[in-house]
Write a structure and sequence with these properties.
By secondary structure, this protein is mainly alpha-helical. The chain folds into 3 domains: 191 residues, Rossmann fold; 71 residues, no CATH class; 86 residues, Orthogonal Bundle (Tyrosyl-Transfer RNA Synthetase). The chain has 16 helices and 5 strands. Strands 1-2-3 form a 3-stranded parallel beta sheet. The chain has a two-stranded parallel ribbon with strand order 4-5. Helix 4 packs parallel to helix 16 and helix 10 crosses helix 11. The longest helix is centred in the C-terminal third of the chain and has 30 residues. The radius of gyration is 24 Å and the shape is globular. Bound molecules: iron/sulfur cluster. Iron/sulfur cluster binds next to helix 13 and helix 15.
Length: 398
């Protein structure tokens, strides 16, 4: 495996994964492991930047995420799977790099600005809750007056309320993000959170990979990694670090059961290996085209999340028939959801079976992780040996 170019990617332990992860990141990892020497890690140190008490849940969260990786087909015989905090060299290299990055560079990171804007919006949500609720109620009433059909649909009203509130908060967040002041938010950001892109650079460069798979939104972090690699090489007149290239990846947008992007924070997910009963219930309650109230109303499959999920699991010919019948008012949403539930169950059953088998073999899952960590650590130690040598530092005792 080692002759192949190395690729590194990680994920925070956030609990069970859903179909958005399966058809996005994990499908990509599955492809990458065929061509590259892949190192996939659980970024547990990073999870602490959200909440330092998260560590209390790590045992369960790590186990859940690795079982989902394996269920999805990430293969520990092809890729090295490991836990970030089990390789202490991550923290060591982070320390070296933290001397090479200026504070002003970190304060300009777009992801920090976004993070601060979210925290300040949360502060607002807590302190001005009454005003926010009143403005949301008024906006929803205004919409209901214009579209009285919605009054008969309390489920759609609650989505409308949630969306209106989200729009208010997003507008506020955008305004805060555009503010120029720096450090006025020092009380909201920990030292660890500020330095997290530096730790991320250490995570990557420790394995001296040729490529890092990233979405557009993560390019700024990889750019910092490349800058740090160049700065280290220049400072110590060495070539220890290659300059990793982005492997730009276009992740498909998977809709959640309410039509928004599938995300744990929206509570609209379908889990990898979801049990049959819950799966059917979630599909039955899915949001559809709001203009299609009766079977005979012409629908718009292109904006309907049920149809977007059909696209992922239903054969193409059948998809076309569904779209045509929906538009012609010949197919009702209840039947259409029933068809999706059947297709989804056929897709989910083998995944569920694989996951249940892994749940019976939890010790083996941890063994694979320990095995991967040993391999990752050997490479990390070799990098640190080269780093210390380039810096002219004395060798520590073996
Ligand atoms: S018939 Fe199917 S595709 Fe058309 S709106 Fe209803 S659920 Fe969506």
């Amino acid at each position: 495996m080692e002759e192949r170019p190395r690729v590194l990617s990680g994920a925070r332990p956030t609990g069970r994964l859903h179909l958005g992860h399966l058809w996005g990141v994990l499908a990509n990892w599955k492809k990458l492991q065929e061509t590259y020497a892949c190192y996939f890690f659980i970024a547990d140190w990073h999870a602490l930047t959200e909440d330092p008490r998260k560590s209390l849940e790590f045992r369960t969260l790590i186990e859940e995420i690795v079982m989902d990786w394996l269920t999805a087909g990430v293969d520990p015989d092809r890729a090295v799977l490991f836990v970030q905090s089990w390789v202490p060299e991550h923290v060591e290299l982070h320390m070296v790099f933290s001397m090479l990055v200026h504070l002003s560079r970190l304060l300009r990171m777009p992801t920090l600005k976004e993070h601060v804007a979210s925290l300040r919006t949360e502060e607002f949500r807590g302190t001005r809750k009454g005003e926010l609720d009143r403005a949301t109620r008024e906006a929803v009433q205004h919409v209901l007056q214009r579209y009285p059909d919605l009054v008969e649909h309390p489920d759609r009203q609650s989505i409308l309320t949630a969306e209106a509130k989200q729009i208010f908060l997003q507008t506020l967040k955008d305004a805060v993000e555009d503010e120029e002041e720096e450090l006025s938010y020092g009380h909201l950001v920990s030292y660890g959170r500020l330095g997290y892109p530096v730790l991320q650079s250490a995570d990557v460069l420790l394995y001296r990979p040729r490529f890092v798979p990233v979405g557009e939104d993560q390019l700024s972090h990889l750019e910092l990694t490349r800058e740090i690699a160049r700065r280290f090489n220049r400072t110590y007149k060495t070539r220890v670090f290659p300059i990793p290239k982005p492997l730009l990846t276009d992740f498909p947008k998977v809709p959640g059961t309410d039509g928004r992007k599938m995300s744990k924070s929206y509570g609209n997910t379908i889990l990898i290996g979801e049990d049959r009963e819950t799966l059917e219930k979630k599909i039955r309650r899915m949001y559809t085209d709001p203009q299609k109230i009766r079977k005979t109303d012409p629908g718009r499959p292109e904006i309907c999340p049920v149809f977007q999920l059909h696209r992922m699991v239903t054969p193409e010919g059948e998809q076309q028939t569904i779209a045509e019948d929906c538009r012609a008012g010949a197919l009702g949403c209840v039947v259409c959801k029933g068809m999706l539930a059947e297709r989804m169950e056929a897709f989910m059953a083998p995944l569920r079976e694989r996951r249940l088998a892994l749940e019976r073999e939890r010790d083996t899952v941890w063994d694979r992780l320990r095995e991967g960590t040993r391999k990752a650590r050997a490479l990390a130690q070799e990098t640190m040996r080269q780093v210390r040598a380039a810096m002219g530092m004395p060798e520590p005792p073996a």
